Amino acid sequence: MPTRPMREAPELVVVVGRKRVWSDAGANRCTAYLAPLRLERAYYHCSWCGHGFCPRDEQLSIENTSLSPALTRMTGTVGAMVSFQEGSELLAELAGVAVDAKQVERTAEALGQEISEDERHHAEPSDTLALPQTFYLGMDGTDIPLRAEELAGRAGKQPDGSAKTGEVKLCTIWSAESFDAEGTPIRDEGSVTYSAALESASALDTAAQRSPFAERVWREATRRRFNQASRTAVLGDGAAWIWNIAADQFPTAFQIVDRFHAKQHLSDLAKALYGPTHPRAAQWADRRKEELDTGKFRALLNAIRRQVPRSEDARRCLHYFQTNRQRMRYPEFHAQGLCTSTGVVEAGCKVAIGTRLKRAGMHWTIQGSNAIIALRCSKLSGRFQDFWERRSERRAA
What we know:
The strands form 5 sheets. The chain has a 5-stranded mixed beta sheet with strand order 12-9-8-13-14, with helices on both faces. A 3-stranded antiparallel beta sheet has the order 1-6-7, with no helix packed on it. Strands 2-5 form a two-stranded antiparallel sheet. It is α+β, with helices and mostly antiparallel strands. It has helices spanning 55-59, 69-81, 84-95, 101-121, 212-224, 240-249, 259-274, 279-293, 297-305, 312-323, 330-335, 343-357, 366-380, 384-396; strands at 4-6, 12-14, 18-21, 30-33, 37-39, 43-45, 52-53, 134-145, 165-174, 178-179, 185-186, 193-197, 231-236, 254-257.
């Protein structure tokens, strides 16, 4: 049934922006605002189905929203970087636009979900970053607080066996072609990219299928041309799921346990054996760390083994070092100029996840957290502009 135009369309107000002007001395400050822009466009209503629409809204990419594309992008940016309330305040302060915190949340999460879907379909290799001689890939997990309804039936670390958090898995890729005075590789500026989500790293029942996080790692490695580098290394804290993914996807890469995690195991064992403040604990740990650094691995294992009869902690520690022995060849790795620290990965857990999603009072849904994580990783990895261009092309098609 034909539609008929109506005189009055729903009012659309677009605040173009504002500009601040200061005198050279910083005095007599004034603020000038560009007036709201009111757009008049035809509204059509179908008397048969009861629905109406504005054709111009589709052309302007503002269907079902009160935000222009530019303001949508601004809202997504603040939602990725700060809390939704802070984002609302920033938009008011810097752009003169009133967007309440709930709308910042809805807009940022919707964009994040778009980015998450876009990420799954665009894993083509990128040549925007130079291919280094050596590429590093790190994996780690970090907990974020979840809402109670998301934790029903989930086992956790609380005394009653329940959980308060969920674990975000993070994949980080970077290069480090220069060295400091001690010969330690230094991360190349602008080389770090992130991909993360609150998803499982466990293998699926079907042997031919990878876990959701393993698929994410593969897409990130493909985008960065990880396997095309002359030399590759995978770093982790010793968790089995990290080495399972590394062995499956990057069989020729060096596998390296983070040196500081290994030393932390020795410190923890020393405190368990002799007490947290006993001088003998520090002496024992320091000697074991020296053996680790200099490659005296047999002496290290023997020293731990002697403690096994009187300590369950020593038994677990011995298993950890025996299992990861080939991943702790630190003198050899150092001689080849390889990173032996996951500092870049741990910084990524803090920068990409912690500073945004682990603030006081925050409790997330799985869907909401994954959306903000996707949005934040896109921004921090320098891929937000690429996504936005693809989004604009899709809407213009």
